[in-house]
Amino acid sequence: MNPIEFFIIKCICVYLSGIGFGLIVNLPHKALNIAGFNALLGWLVYYVIINTWGGLGSSNFFGGLCIGVTSVIIARWKKMPSILFDVPGLVPLVPGGQAYNTIKSFAMGNYQAAFSYLSEVIWIAGSIALGFIVAELVNKIRIKVERDLKKLKRSRKSKI
């Protein structure tokens, strides 16, 4: 299997994981397809950054940021809460493998490896959370700018 076919299969699996988790959390059916694409978009940002110049922290940060910003845009478009698109979008970024290895290493008595995996889990989870916080900040700034522009337009109209 060549690398392009493998990448396409990964993309399909990421899209299906977003839809599958959307089904598990009882997402409305009209939002499933978009939730899958949101998961794919966030994962693509993660994939590009981790394979070019970034490490685990920056790739997860920008993946989380992308999912957070996109979720707000989709939520406004679909007139639904953004959390409906946040949760399925995060599934591909969750550090499940590292968390499993942490528990496995603790159980096997390999504490040095366990703490190494644990630090990765904390680093990844923190990066994703920080990405969401920045996405929320970007949304608040956007709302404030829109509000200020509307006030400016109204004040100009009232002077005429």
TrEMBL record:
<keyword id="KW-1133">Transmembrane helix</keyword>
<dbReference type="GO" id="GO:0015744">
    <property type="term" value="P:succinate transport"/>
</dbReference>
<dbReference type="Pfam" id="PF12821">
    <property type="entry name" value="ThrE_2"/>
</dbReference>
<comment type="similarity">
    <text>Belongs to the ThrE exporter (TC 2.A.79) family.</text>
</comment>
<feature type="transmembrane region" description="Helical">
    <location>
        <begin position="6"/>
        <end position="25"/>
    </location>
</feature>
<protein>
    <recommendedName>
        <fullName>Threonine/Serine exporter ThrE domain-containing protein</fullName>
    </recommendedName>
</protein>
<keyword id="KW-1003">Cell membrane</keyword>
<dbReference type="InterPro" id="IPR024528">
    <property type="entry name" value="ThrE_2"/>
</dbReference>
<dbReference type="InterPro" id="IPR050539">
    <property type="entry name" value="ThrE_Dicarb/AminoAcid_Exp"/>
</dbReference>
<keyword id="KW-0472">Membrane</keyword>
<feature type="domain" description="Threonine/Serine exporter ThrE">
    <location>
        <begin position="11"/>
        <end position="138"/>
    </location>
</feature>
<feature type="transmembrane region" description="Helical">
    <location>
        <begin position="121"/>
        <end position="138"/>
    </location>
</feature>
<keyword id="KW-0997">Cell inner membrane</keyword>
<dbReference type="GO" id="GO:0005886">
    <property type="term" value="C:plasma membrane"/>
</dbReference>
<feature type="transmembrane region" description="Helical">
    <location>
        <begin position="32"/>
        <end position="50"/>
    </location>
</feature>
<keyword id="KW-0812">Transmembrane</keyword>
